[in-house]
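Late entry, written up from scratch paper. The run itself happened at the end of the previous shift, but nothing got recorded in the book at the time, so transcribing now.
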Amino acid sequence: MTCPRCNIELTTSDSGDSLRCPQCSGWLVPAADIQAEALDLATESPEQEQLRCPADGDLMKTVQLGDAALDVCNQCGSVWLDAGESVDDTDRSSSLSR
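Output as recorded:
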């Protein structure tokens, strides 16, 4: 799978539960790792660039959740986070994780 921003091959994170871009430090989170309740609080940002999901190639919609702009796949529900968009900078498993 490739990064939707850099078109670079994604690598497995140290924890093995997500994929990271070695160039821009963005990461792809499986839909199962995101609480539906958290995404329900997000507001859609239609003016944002639509990315292609690294997992299935479908278009992603950008939603705003707090200070983070999350790109959510319309098909599989995977979430792309750009570098610095983690809710908790010290641990990827933030308040969005189960």
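The CA atoms of residues 34 and 96 lie 5 Å apart.
(Scratch paper discarded after transcription.)
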